[in-house]
Amino acid sequence: MLELTEATRKRIRELQELADKAEGGDDGARLELRRRLREESPEVVAGCSDSARSYRRLLAERSSGGNPLRKEAISERAGRMALELAGENPTPLEVLLSERVASLWVLVELQEALLAAWYYKANATSPTFVLQMARLQESAHRRYLAAIKTLAQVQKLQGPSRVQVNIGGNQINVSR
Q1: What is the pLDDT of residues 77-130, one digit of tens each?
Q2: Which domain, by its residues, includes 3?
Q3: What average pLDDT does the chain have?
Q4: Same domain, 5 and 87
């Protein structure tokens, strides 16, 4: 699900147009949307329900402080991170976990920035509030590390992504 084909993007746009009609109160469009989603490919349904990218964009918006370059760069970096972490030919579980790691990376970065700002404004912020924010940051960081660890364990169980085999002097590369 990490990268969508042009055909998938087109189908998602068509479904979004139908969803917009349904949101406008068109009950027929809502029923048609449900029917078409049941008939769509898993890739299209996954693309329509990709909350991880939306979540990352919201967090990037907040982290950027209104700077469009920083917002887009954070979002792009997280997307690239998810792709890189998933590796070649990822399993569905590897896709989910790599998306989770990338999303949590953005959250941890935001929490670190906010915590630094609250420490900077120590006189204007109560110690109780700063302590609570530090706990939230620590919780996000623990979840981030747990997601990284789980992804690493899953990938280790999958074995190496590329195996080289020599048969009769000929080298053969096999990808999982």
Answers
A1: 999 999 999 998 899 899 999 999 999 999 999 898 888 877 777 667 787 888
A2: 1-49
A3: 86
A4: no
With beta carbons less than 8 A apart as the criterion, state whether 148 and 98 touch.
no
Of 16, 31, 49, at which residue does a domain stop?
A: 49
State pTM to two decimals.
0.72
DSSP 58-109: HHHHHHHTT-HHHHHHHHHHHHHHHHHHH-SS--HHHHHHHHHHHHHHHHHH
Cα separation of the two ends of the chain: 17
**Whether residue 111 sits in one domain with residue 38:** no
Question: Which amino acid, residue 14?
Answer: E
Instruction: Output the six-digit token pair for 152.
Output: 């690493």
In this structure, the answer to whether residues 28 and 11 fall within a common structural domain is yes
